Amino acid sequence: MSRKPEKLIDKKGLRLDGRKPDELRPIKIEAGALSNADGSAYIEQGKNKILAAVYGPKEVHPKHLALQDRMVIRCRYHMAPFSVQERKSPAPSRREIELSKVIRESLEPSIFLEYYPRTIIDVFIEVLQADGGTRCASITAASIALADAGIPMRDLVVACAAGKVDDTIVLDLMDTEDKMGTADVPLALMPNLKALTLLQMDGILTSKEFESAVNLALEGCKKIYTLQKEALRTKYVNMKEVEE
Amino acid sequence: MCSQSSEQQSDNLVLPGERLGVIEEFIPDAGTYVKDGVIRSGVVGRSLHDSLNKRVSVVPLIHGAMLPKVESVILGQVSSVQTQNAIVRIFKIGKKQLSGVFTGILHISDVQPRYVESMFNVCKPADIIRAKVISEKNKTYHLFTKDKNLGVVYALCSQCGYSLESKRQSLYCPRCGRIEKRKTALDYGKDIT
């Protein structure tokens, strides 16, 4: 937080990093980035760098956490101490605990939980570098990691945020825009089933602005979904045999 | 590699949620699910449209999400032994190494076709054992070793901790000379992977 820019959008209608209001940050997604996890993914969205790893399904310990009719998902969203400008304590903060829950709940509807009763899946999300919109990027990456782990899923989950900055509705807010802007609407979508699994808002929007923000975020989700598919395709397109 | 006959169309890489057809044209098979009359893929795999039998399925490309099933051959470590039972921590199913462990139970009546006096003559804690799953009722994996290829594949001497070698009917410790009894698999000591 070195300096406060006076205007978040300049006269030409461009944002601080030169993006148009409805433009995403450059995104790079890789499936299977880690070899020790059952499934993994790495995402770079602008300056965000996030790793997601999935382990399981495995036996639940302690046993009382197990559910008799379905699988349990345990999700940990964590920011590395070096992920932000000032060192962040590695202990899970209140915000991280909440985001873990939010991410877990937005992934749960996409998984066939009832296929594996009395088991657990661990989802680890490690934010290596944060620049706003980490929850959305985390959901996108975690969903690929789950698919990469071979877990039966209804659909992939893709997430994107929109918000209001200097009286303009913009897509995919970065850190400064998030902090200085008026509102932020992150949402997660199962694109094939056309179902939302997450919809949050902080700040103030009129109902009209809210609607256009949601529509803009949905457009963003569709663009990210093609990249998400691409990432899984590049890993599996040449694979003929079943991977042991 | 990909066999493309007239009635079978395959090798489309599909991802979870991708539309494969509607229930009026195909019968949904393995790897698919139905939502609002539309058949969709449930895994990452290759779709298989069988227009002769009117079936559509997805052959998974990843063998993830493995659980012990009835008839699957597992590899595990004995964690505790009682007179009637042994508890086994399953860490491998077939060739697939698990990221966690599942707990299995081996009862004395499932060890050998003949009468077995005590479980202590079958296996000891820390032994590596190969067994077959015979029941998964209530997610308790009941194991079975009534086969030549099943049984202990690697064991340590209970006196000095050295690895035991197979010698005729029993196991022998080359360091302290102790002779121990186990229900060994035919390939004892050869297949340690």
Structure overview:
By secondary structure, chain A is of the alpha+beta class. Chain A has helices at residues 94-107, 134-148, 175-180, 207-236, and strands at residues 27-31, 39-45, 48-59, 72-79, 119-129, 158-165, 168-171, 183-190, 195-199, 202-203. Chain A has one domain: Ribosomal Protein S5, domain 2. A five-stranded mixed sheet of chain A has the order 1-2-3-5-4. In chain A, strands 6, 7, 8, 9 and 10 form a five-stranded antiparallel sheet that branches. In chain A, a hairpin with a 4-residue loop joins β8 and β9 (195-199). In chain A, α1 crosses α2 and α2 packs parallel to α4. Chain A is globular, with a radius of gyration of 18 Å. Chain A starts with 26 loop residues before the first strand and ends in an 8-residue tail after the last helix. Chain B has two domains: 8-60, RNA polymerase II/Efflux pump adaptor protein, barrel-sandwich hybrid domain (OB fold (Dihydrolipoamide Acetyltransferase, E2P), Beta Barrel); 73-180, Nucleic acid-binding proteins (OB fold (Dihydrolipoamide Acetyltransferase, E2P), Beta Barrel). Chain B has no helices and 16 strands. In chain B, β4 and β5 (38-41) form a beta hairpin. The radius of gyration of chain B is 23 Å and the shape is elongated. Chains A and B meet through β3 and α4 of A and β10 of B.
Global geometry of chain A: globular
CATH architecture verdict of the largest domain in chain B: Beta Barrel
Radius of gyration of chain B: 23 Å
Q: From the 3D coordinates, which CATH architecture of chain A would you assign? A: 2-Layer Sandwich
Q: What is the CA-CA span between the terminal residues of chain A?
A: 47 Å
Question: What name does CATH use for the topology of the largest domain in chain B?
Answer: OB fold (Dihydrolipoamide Acetyltransferase, E2P)
- What is the straight-line distance between the termini of chain B? 30 Å
Largest sheet of chain B, in brief, is: 5 strands, mixed, barrel
The major β-sheet of chain A equals:
5 strands, mixed
Largest interface: A-B, 39 and 32 residues
Low-confidence stretches of chain A: none
**Uncertain segments of chain B:** 1-6
CATH T-level fold name of chain A: Ribosomal Protein S5, domain 2
What would CATH call the homologous superfamily of the largest domain in chain B?
Answer: Nucleic acid-binding proteins
